[in-house]
Give the backbone structure.
Amino acid sequence: MENFEPKIVAFVCNWCTYAGADLTGTSRIKYAPNVKIIRFPCTGRIDFMILMKAFVNGADGIIVSGCHPNDCHYTSGNFHARRRWMVFRNLLDIMGVDLERITFSWVSAAEGAKWAEIVNSTVDKIKKLGPYENYKKLADSQQLKEVIHG
Amino acid sequence: MDNLIKKAKELLENNLVQVVIGYEKGNTQKSRPVFIFKAENADKLIYDESCHYNLASYITRQEMRHTGKMAVVANIHALKAMLVLANEHQFIEGNVIALAVDGSSDVTELKTFSEIEEYIASHPVELKEKEKVLLEKIKALSKEERWEFWQNELARCFKCYACRAACPMCYCHQCTVDCNKPQWITVAPHQLGNYEWQMMRAMHLAGRCVDCGACAEACPLDIPINMLTYYLSESIESNFGFKTGTSATKLYVLSDYKLEDKENFIR
């Protein structure tokens, strides 16, 4: 547990957070290397199944980030996403998925420091929580192979 | 019941509809759906407490669409489902006549969407007592206990998709679960696929589910899968003030947004 390095997958929007994360780098701000960034056209594009697939493939934590309200490149993508996440979080809650492991944030292209802070605090939080054993057990590929191939 | 038969005969004899979808007596305690094409067969129709199926699920079937105009014996849940289908442009106003039944001997013929809206507004409906108790029980569990609860329940699922077949809202020609490029959900009856399938089903029904409970009733293994959608309906109503199946024109809740939507989890 001492040496546990969590795997974090970040789903970010092309226009704000991806540019913000870029700014973090060009500003020479150091942040935890645990995060793997996946760029999407918009937060409104992020299907809920994509998040669950990250858990299936071994992620311990997820960050979803996009433009601040009213800043969306497509005018309303993040508003739609916000509603969807409000509903989806309720579903995860009733199904017993650990909500602590999914961080939602708004990071604009000018907020390089905020991005570093969000990644660092998420990594710290997930380090305390430990690996996501529940979902790892559920998605055990060996067992799945046995079910499919006998 | 006599009123219902009389009405069905009248509609079929005057050629106002080609088919009446209703209930008939089954071999067991339960009744079963029946399709009446000729007026002389209308005597089979019944309506009592044993009639549970949501007959609105037949409106969108390919075979029924080709049949022509239809009349559907509809309880309050089926009427709500019809409004959601109307909202999603699944049938044309006037092509489906609802024969609204509410347990008494009265039958109300509803032709237009506004008539259905009025009927629903004047007949409020709540969850069954048993369902309320179970929902409260699940809500009272801790996070870990909920995980365990659904793991145990969904371990029984063998993906017969009876829940999907019974649901009036599941009318897609190709369901995500049948899609294999990319394959979102493992088709084997493995715990992971079962869990994701129910999660996906609930999310795709969020804000569209009319709380009829047809899915749980169709489940041969008695998994209380309707609890997921009930919980979402509840939270959608409290968050966005959206009541499913009350309007044929109001925009679907997840296609819509408001600037002042309030959440407390986005940093």
